[in-house]
Amino acid sequence: GAVVSQHPSRVICKSGTSVKIECRSLDFQATTMFWYRQFPKQSLMLMATSNEGSKATYEQGVEKDKFLINHASLTLSTLTVTSAHPEDSSFYICSARDRDSLETQYFGPGTRLLVL
Amino acid sequence: GQNIDQPTEMTATEGAIVQINCTYQTSGFNGLFWYQQHAGEAPTFLSYNVLDGLEEKGRFSSFLSRSKGYSYLLLKELQMKDSASYLCAAMDSNYQLIWGAGTKLIIKP
After folding, report:
1. Each residue of B60-86: pLDDT tens digit?
2. Those residues with Cβ within 8 angstroms of residue A22's Cβ, 6 or more apart along the chain or in another chain
3. Rounded to a whole number, what is the distance in Å from the CA of B76 to chain A's nearest CA?
4. Partner B contacted by A108 (CB < 8 A)
5. Which of A43, A46, A108 sits opposite B42 (nearest CB)?
6. Banded model confidence at residue A104, pLDDT cuts 50, 70, 90
7. Which of A34, A85, B45, B59 is 20 to 30 A from A67 in CA distance terms?
């Protein structure tokens, strides 16, 4: 089946630093990638939808200047958490939609971010 | 508005059967998904229904009634490893997934 990778899987950083998370579709082309955040014991929260070659669409309440998304190719999207603070500590998960199958989304393994 | 409802938590016994219900309201409909998520891990795909009826896949089955906006996930011969959260998600007319809050399933010996 299709595989989506995320890197890094886990990151610990100091408050005020920026962290970049990569999401790659390994064996298919993804015109659309989704970024989710999940706090402990809560469900997935969609942060933004990223379309290749265009600006991301952010959900209400998500600061676009804080969570920078770049989707430069059909296989790579990045999420940069700028000036991270402890409240940004969370589990960040990306998913990628197969260009040839709009109803199919494949999830990456997630990135656990801890901001000290 | 768009909404997904599913129970917060359920408890069942190893070897038994459990049914997790989900009701949905979306703008348009392109299918109903069930995902399993173990603590600390990303969701993994279990099933996809777009037509009415029951889809069986091993110990897991999923049912959809589009007219009622209702789905359920049926787990048979429960095993301890089935302890996880089960997420119901409906896909709207824009092919966006609308997520439920998840049902935490606790399996007891």
Report:
1. 999 999 999 999 999 999 999 999 999
2. A5, A6, A7, A76, A77, A78
3. 24
4. yes
5. A108
6. confident
7. B45
| Cβ distance of A103 and B91 shorter than 8 Å | yes
**Which tokens is B17 given?**
């059967």
- Taking CA–CA distances from B88, the nearest residue in chain A reads A43
Q: Do A46 and B99 count as a contact with CB atoms less than 8 A apart?
A: yes
Q: What integer pLDDT is reported at residue A1 of this predicted model?
A: 63
Instruction: Please tell me the distance from the alpha carbon of residue A12 to that of residue A14, in angstroms, as a whole number.
Output: 7
Which residue in A43, A103, A109 is closest to B101 by CB distance?
A: A43
Whether residue A8 contacts residue A24, with contact meaning beta carbons closer than 8 Å, is answered with: no
DSSP B72-99: EEEE-S--GGG-EEEEEEEE-TTSPEEE
Q: Which residues of chain B have pLDDT under 50?
A: none
CA distance B98 to chain A (A): 9
Q: What is the pLDDT of residues A7-47, one digit of tens each?
A: 999 999 999 999 999 999 998 888 899 999 999 878 889 99
Question: In chain A, positions 31-50, which contact chain B (CB-CB < 8 Å)?
Answer: 34, 42-44, 46, 49
Cβ-Cβ pairs closer than 8 A, A with B, add up to 39
- What percent of chain B is modeled with pLDDT above 70? 100
- The Cα B9–Cα B31 span in angstroms is 24
**Amino acid letter at B26?**
T
